[in-house]
Design brief:
single chain, alpha/beta, 30% helix, 27 strands, 2 domains, eight-stranded mixed beta sheet
């Protein structure tokens, strides 16, 4: 078997269904048999319109219509492009137009409710008259492109990763291997279908495993996170997946009253990935939801990326999370030295089904276990490349002897487990020390637990060194309260890391994220330098003020950005 379509159709049954729970709590259902019938009709329509092998963006709200359209594209050998609906105020967004140009798409598919507002980008609704019995299975092979997963743009312009049928079958097989012979029966989640974790880890995983899927919209989860955990209990789900944010959001927002009605005892796997996994998030969630039946053995931390379809490593079922602590000074030298009471890191599971090595960041050679370097991956899950970008594909997907994917992520192997420490481009080097922005951001959160998101990045000084900028969201308040908040954050971060620091306090929502929830650190750096941020309060180190330019029109010119009184506690 070389294609996903044949595998999915082998699971057809009215005993299995997809359930989408609307924001008002009303469930809508679709059996696998009906899903197949509607997908075949969609495939006939696509073929009649001459779209075979032509990419088609899918701009759908959360729900079952996207799943039908995506499967119809697979059935018609049409590379689908899962993408978020543009904001209501910008129906013809630049991102969608750029995506269509990059992929060579001539139209998009959407639902009837959004067709008129998207008419300017050739939006179409699949016609109701296509005959599913007129479907003829296309010629599909392991190397046939199944869909394009556009990267979220956290570090660069979005690029379309070409994922093949063979890539999908292999990666979904890695998920099945995690169960250790106890296949998934029912998945529950809220992740968006245009995110690789939501598409592969939820929707396609259910179709591949022949399992039920119950899901809801991301907006409904964010507005009332208890809904996700209620789905798990109501439908007796045994699998769920989420980034670290989802588990942390539940811990913070679910009330004691809501907790009493939850039942998580049916879970066997709670996957966490897609962003840095914080040991504190896991521990807090365990404590909070133990009364609802959550057990530490349910955790399955993992690591993956779209360029490897989704999963690279993941903790197998029943093993639980491995958290170890490491010497902070050694991590700054790109070495992992276990130390009691040190920096806690969560293991992302063993390597299985793929080849993985840790390489020097310049690609000169491998590093030993415990050495931090770039994560390289090889194997059948590694995607074909970036659509229409041969040079970038060669550099990223054909490193070393030609078969290695350079992930751009930093990590190390220890005792057979992978630990991920950050992105190469995000690391800030201060006085020869390698600092990871997520560590600075986590320290800022500890200093101000009621704050929103934060982001940290480095600015190059004239002497070649870097200075750290931290941007922290806060609620609007009086200037005195903002000053006290700034002092708490500055004191804790500078004491903990021993570095000079410049701080901006900004309103909630000012720290930008990608569509999948990752911090856009490089974009925030550009906004900072370009004067695109209006802070509520700023504490700038003199060298940064000089970089911004004295007397310029920049909103943070020195006259409006007093320096922090260091009080002698900063060790340079």
């Amino acid at each position: 078997m070389t294609d996903l379509v044949t595998h999915i159709r082998s699971n057809l049954s009215d005993d299995r269904e997809l359930v989408f729970v609307r924001d008002d709590g009303t469930p809508t259902r679709l059996t696998f048999t009906e899903l197949d019938r509607r997908a075949r009709a969609t495939a006939v329509w696509l073929t009649e319109h001459g779209l075979t092998d032509r990419p088609v963006p899918l701009l759908y709200p959360a729900g079952l219509e996207f799943t039908v359209a995506f499967l119809g594209c697979l059935y018609a050998r049409v590379p689908a492009i899962p993408a978020p609906l543009p904001d209501a105020g910008a129906p013809h967004s630049n991102r969608v137009r750029a995506l269509m140009r990059d992929a060579g798409a001539r139209l998009v598919l959407t639902d009837a409710a959004h067709a008129s507002t998207l008419s300017g980008i050739s939006a179409r609704v699949v016609g109701p008259c296509a005959d599913p019995d007129g479907w003829t299975p296309p010629a599909l092979a392991a190397g046939t492109v199944a869909y394009l997963q556009y990267t979220s743009g956290s570090t660069s312009e979005p690029r379309g990763v070409e994922v093949s049928h063979g890539n999908l079958l292999h990666n979904l097989g890695l998920f099945r291997a995690l169960t250790r012979g106890r296949p998934v029966r029912r998945l529950a989640g809220w992740l968006p279908h245009y995110h690789d974790m939501g598409l592969v880890g939820l929707q396609l995983q259910a179709l591949h495993a022949g399992a039920d899927l119950v899901f809801m919209s991301p907006a409904a989860f964010v507005a009332r996170p208890v809904r996700w955990l209620e789905l798990i209990g109501r439908y007796a789900a045994d699998w769920t997946v989420s980034p670290d944010f989802g588990y942390a959001w539940c811990t913070r927002r679910i009330t004691d009253e809501q907790l009493t009605g939850l039942n998580l005892a049916t879970l066997t796997m709670a996957l966490s990935g897609a962003e840095p996994i914080r040991a504190g998030t896991l521990a807090d969630f365990e404590r909070r939801f133990a009364p609802a039946g959550f057990r530490p053995t349910m955790w399955n931390p993992g690591y993956g990326l779209a360029e490897c379809t989704l999963m690279v490593t993941c903790t197998p079922q029943g093993q639980g999370a491995t958290v170890r602590t490491f010497a902070a000074a050694a991590l700054e030298r790109h070495e992992a030295v276990p130390e009691p009471g040190g920096v806690p890191l969560v293991a992302c599971g063993p390597v299985s089904g793929l080849d993985l090595q840790i390489m020097e960041t310049d690609g000169s050679g491998p590093v030993p276990d415990g050495g931090i370097g770039e994560i390289w991956v090889a194997g059948p899950s590694v995607a074909l490349g970036y659509r229409g970008r041969p040079e970038e594909t060669l550099a990223a997907f054909h490193a070393g002897d030609g078969r290695w994917l350079r992930t751009g992520d930093l990590g190390f192997l220890l005792d057979g487990q992978l630990y991920v420490t950050g992105r190469i481009k995000d690391v800030v080097i201060v006085n020869g020390r390698n600092l990871y922005p997520q560590d600075l951001e986590e320290a800022a959160l500890r200093a101000n637990p009621t704050a929103g998101r934060s982001t940290a990045f480095g600015l190059r000084r004239p002497d070649g060194g870097e200075h750290v900028i931290l941007i922290q969201e806060v609620r609007r308040g009086h200037s005195a309260a903002l000053g006290e908040t700034a002092d708490r954050v500055m004191d804790l971060v500078t004491k903990e890391f021993g570095i000079p620091l410049s701080l901006l306090l900004v309103p909630r929502g000012a720290v930008r994220q990608t569509t999948s929830g990752k911090l856009r650190r490089r974009h925030m750096r550009e906004l900072f330098l370009g004067g695109g941020l209006t802070p509520l309060h700023a504490e700038l180190e003199p060298a940064v003020s000089a970089l911004l330019g004295a007397g310029s029109a920049h909103p943070l010119r020195p006259a409006e950005a007093p320096s922090h009184p260091w009080s002698g506690h900063v060790r340079l």
